[in-house]
């Protein structure tokens, strides 16, 4: 085997390698701007091999959407079933894996009916899961997801304590309070 020939990997390992490369590419460029040749190059394989394994760019993007929602579900399953703990787990995931928030935003923005349907289905399933796990009512679930969207956008914009505009960043991150109003 020469230097230009990629090492043989088991199919599952190769698939994981492609998914990792695709996650980065689609997080940066979305469905429309993502390039299979860039994914193939990052994974160290040929463009035709990516197509052979996934069928099309859209199918690969849909797989990345599923991978992303699965990561969120796994984060939720690894903590206490309270809105505060689930929110903290989501923020930790966004901080640990920046691509999660970016893929979420790319999925929401995709101008493709199949992608919109997949994102809609997974998002609604996640909302129902939160309600079931926590016993939260509709208002609390909406507020939880509104807070999550602020956190997702904030992570995508890299708002954090390291920024020069820390006070502004902190204000943005505290805009949505997950607790119900007292009357």
UniProtKB/TrEMBL annotation:
Domain named HTH tetR-type: residues: 12-72
DNA-binding region(s), chain positions: 35-54
Gene3D superfamilies (UniProt xref): Tetracycline Repressor, domain 2 (1.10.357.10)
Protein name: Helix-turn-helix transcriptional regulator
Organism: Lentzea alba
Matching PROSITE patterns: HTH_TETR_2
Keywords: DNA-binding, Transcription, Transcription regulation
A GO MF label: DNA-binding transcription factor activity
């Amino acid at each position: 085997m020469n230097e230009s020939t990629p090492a043989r990997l088991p199919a599952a390992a190769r698939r994981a390698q492609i998914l990792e490369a695709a996650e980065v590419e689609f997080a940066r460029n979305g469905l429309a701007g993502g390039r299979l040749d860039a994914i193939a190059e990052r994974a160290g394989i040929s463009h035709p091999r990516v197509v052979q394994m996934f069928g099309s760019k859209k199918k690969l993007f849909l797989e990345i959407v599923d991978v992303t929602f699965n990561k969120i579900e796994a984060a939720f399953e690894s903590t206490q079933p309270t809105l505060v703990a689930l929110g903290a787990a989501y923020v930790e995931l966004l901080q640990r894996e920046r691509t999660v928030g970016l893929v979420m935003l790319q999925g929401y923005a995709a101008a493709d009916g199949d992608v919109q349907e997949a994102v809609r289905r997974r998002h609604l399933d996640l909302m129902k899961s939160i309600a079931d796990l926590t016993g939260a009512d509709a208002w609390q679930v909406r507020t939880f997801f509104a807070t999550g969207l602020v956190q997702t956008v904030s992570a995508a914009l890299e708002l954090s304590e390291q920024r020069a505009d820390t006070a502004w960043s902190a204000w943005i991150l505290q805009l949505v309070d997950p607790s119900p109003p007292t009357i």
